[in-house]
Write a structure and sequence with these properties.
Length: 73
């Protein structure tokens, strides 16, 4: 699921939820809800989080698919 993949990328980048939330300009509560699956991110939010985590293009597309969106071409 998307939340699990997001958590893995956040751990790889050694970022706390607070760090990522501040970078992405969202609340830590919303980020927590996204990671646990209680909230579904918009495609724009997936892009924003992936950019802040410096996720490579292939993995960025995997995140979009996991969130239920079509990959970028």
């Amino acid at each position: 699921p998307f939340g699990h993949q997001l958590r893995e990328w956040r751990a790889r980048r050694r970022m706390s939820q607070l760090d990522l939330a501040l970078e992405a300009e969202i609340s830590t509560r919303h980020l927590s809800f996204i990671e646990t699956g209680r909230a579904r991110p918009s495609a724009d939010m997936v892009h924003r989080l992936a950019e802040r985590l410096e996720v490579p293009r292939r993995s960025h597309n995997a995140l979009l698919l996991a969130a239920g969106y079509a990959p970028d071409s």
